[in-house]
Write a structure and sequence with these properties.
mainly alpha; Amino acid/polyamine transporter I; 2 strands
Length: 445
């Protein structure tokens, strides 16, 4: 029998871990090395600023999702409050965001498997993608369980780092770089060793580190009790992410001065090696693989759900609006997986800066999605003051804070235009939006 509705098999722990798992990935384990080399200790402030901004985005998202019954994603309220064009462009852009992110994750898995096995990079990448696709095709509950354990491995690793760091601080452990101390944060050139320029240049990777927090919106239609679980998840997750990012980076930068870290490697590897764990490299390699798999898993989940929503809204072929016998959007999942696999193979031949370009494009597209959420909330509040007044989950400081965060996003785009590496991606990204606008106009005719 053909299914038409997504099954609400995700529990509160699934929802929270899906969002955490989608966010804590390459941005922390890999990207933090580059970010630290650019900003120094001030990177902690950058994570705080972006984290606070995105908390307000999520509060706006939460109120919108609970304002009316039946929303399965933010593209639906974008269509209602901004028009069909907004829903169309945002839906396909969000899909593109995670396609790009999943490409990077799958390629990373292939690279890190070479640490143990001397095989071509594309082999483990494709094998991992096939496994993730198979698991996602079975049932949404299995996806939730899989993501729960993926995220748990990452969280345990970060907590272990923080605990070890605190112990080293208390005992005054001596390293090759000197004594472990809080003063390492400012004793090597100050909090802003590379000045304002270095601080600003790190924001692109910081933004990429937070992509995925809006997965709450994609999973909203599959929670057993949205009225209870969505507010709980939104209120808790931002603070947990800030704890993991800020706490981990604080510990890393107190154990070793910022200028001892390489931009090309994970700070986690260096820190665990420093404290004398002989299998540190292998442990971190395993964690990085599960981290990339987790993010890729979240990406496949979200892209298939977005295509399902687009199909039901007649913004994509009808085939994407159908579910298999397990209530999984099979057609959308297969298409997303096929494109990710093709991208992974092609990316093998790209230059060394391909990862930075891909993450920049992803960051810019996510900024679009987050902005659409804020703008939709502004219009919602003006159009339905009675719904806002009776909302059980009012977004705070609106609409003022919406405009502040939107201005911050514009500022981030200006910053990306300054750097040579991010400028390239910034210049080409508008082509995606132009293509979508043309396709939308053609479809309307």
């Amino acid at each position: 029998m053909e299914q038409h509705e997504l099954k609400r098999d995700l529990k509160n722990r699934h929802v929270q871990l899906i969002a955490i798992g989608g966010t804590i990935g390459t941005g922390l384990f890999l990207g933090s090395g580059r970010a630290v080399s650019l900003a120094g200790p001030s990177i902690i402030l950058a994570y705080l600023i972006v984290g606070i901004a995105l908390f307000f985005v999520m509060r706006a998202l939460g109120e919108l999702l609970l304002s009316k019954g039946g929303y399965s994603s933010f593209t639906e309220f974008a269509t209602e409050y901004l028009g069909e064009w907004a829903g169309y462009i945002t839906g396909w852009t969000y899909w593109f965001c995670w396609i790009m992110t999943a490409m990077a994750d799958i390629i990373a898995i292939g690279m890190y498997m070479q640490y143990w096995f001397d095989i071509p990079q594309w082999v483990p990448a494709i094998l991992c993608l096939i496994v993730l696709l198979a698991l996602n095709l079975l049932t949404v509950k299995l996806f939730g369980e899989l993501e729960f354990w993926f995220a748990l491995i990452k969280i345990i690793t970060i907590v272990a780092l923080i605990v070890i760091g605190i112990v080293l601080l208390i005992i005054g452990f001596e390293t090759d770089s000197g004594k472990v101390a809080v003063s390492n944060l400012w004793a090597h050139g100050g909090l802003f060793p590379n000045g304002a320029f270095g601080f600003l240049m790190a924001f692109q990777m910081v933004v990429f580190a937070f992509v995925g927090v809006e997965l709450i919106g994609v999973t909203a239609s599959e929670t057993a009790n949205p009225q209870k679980n969505i507010p709980s998840a939104i209120n808790k997750i931002p603070f947990r992410i800030l704890l993991f990012y800020v706490g981990a980076l604080f510990v890393i930068l107190t154990i070793n001065p910022w200028d001892t870290f390489s931009a090309a490697s994970s700070p986690f590897v260096q820190v665990f090696t420093l404290v004398g764990i002989p299998v540190a490299a292998g442990i971190i390699n395993f964690v990085v693989i599960t981290s990339a798999a987790s993010s890729g898993n979240s990406g496949l989940f979200s892209t298939s759900r977005m295509l399902f929503s687009l199909g039901n809204n007649k913004q994509a072929p009808k085939a994407f609006g159908k579910l298999n016998k397990h209530s999984v959007p099979q057609n959308g999942l297969i298409l997303s997986g096929a494109i990710v696999s093709a991208g992974a193979l092609l990316s093998y031949f790209m230059p060394e800066d391909a990862f930075s370009i891909v993450t920049t494009v992803s960051s810019i597209c996510f900024i679009w999605v987050w902005s659409i959420i804020l703008i939709s909330h502004i219009i919602y509040k003006k159009r339905h003051p009675e719904l806002h007044a009776t909302s059980i989950f009012k977004a705070p400081l609106t609409p003022f804070i919406n405009y502040v965060v939107l201005a911050f996003f514009v500022f981030l785009l200006v910053v990306m235009a300054i750097s040579d590496l991010t400028r390239t991606a910034l210049m080409f990204t508008p082509l995606w939006f132009i293509l979508l606008f043309v396709l939308y106009k053609v479809q309307k005719k």
